[in-house]
Amino acid sequence: MTATPTNTAPPAPGATIRPQEAAHFGQMAAEWWDPKGSSAMLHRLNPLRLAFIRAEIDAHFKTDSLTVKPLTGRRALDVGCGAGLLAEPLARLGAAVTGVDAAEENIAAAQSHAAGSGLAITYSCGDVATLGLSGFDLVTAMEVIEHVADKPAFIAALATALAPGGLMLLSCPNRTAKSRLLMVEGAERLGLIPRGTHHWEDFATPEELRDLLATAGLTMGQPRGIGWSPAKGLHLSDDLALNFIVAAKRG
Predict the structure, then answer these.
(1) How far apart are CA 20 and CA 38, in angstroms?
(2) Domain-embedded: residue 6
(3) Parent domain of 35
(4) 217 within domain boundaries
(5) Number of folded domains that form the chain
(6) CB atoms < 10 A from the CB of 213, how many?
(7) Contact 171, 226 (CB under 8 A)
(8) pLDDT in tens, 242-251
(9) Is this prediction's pTM over 0.85?
């Protein structure tokens, strides 16, 4: 059963955006691309995400792991794109990328950075549940579901955006004692993550996410954990207690 969110403000009917969450992340827009700024943890996470994403792309679309642009001719949608930290690598993998975010400041930063990088990415500010998006071969939402107002509506919108035969990729902190200790009490108090970024009660467990995806007509694959240790730092792991990343598809 999905936990009841505590960080809530009344959203518009059918909306999944929490205005206070959009405002929080919008305040970080100017530092999004600074690997030592407020989004430093995302910069550390990104290589792990990309390794998982590339492996899933090759397995799902039967592409050669040595191919530089395995997404050539395919459309990709990154929801909760921030300033484009994942959207830009997806574009470099050959996809025609659309990025959606709730914060206008993030979209402005994403557009500016993409232009400076010579990447043609379409960015839109809005709620994926109301934008009417569809036909995407790849849909990603990394560290987003724990910030939305309505998890079932959000997952349903992602499923609507996914083309037949498409691939969805999601990541989310797991709602465990370990994630409360390390991500909320630890990382935020130590300044590794901006205070107020996470609300532990809104994290989703793998079982809850599996149920949400099933309700939307999607089958969840085997999740991989994103773990942390003093020796390894952040790394992909079989331990799902802190954070996890997973693929889903129809059927």
Answers:
(1) 17
(2) no
(3) 19-250
(4) yes
(5) 1
(6) 22
(7) yes
(8) 999 999 999 7
(9) yes
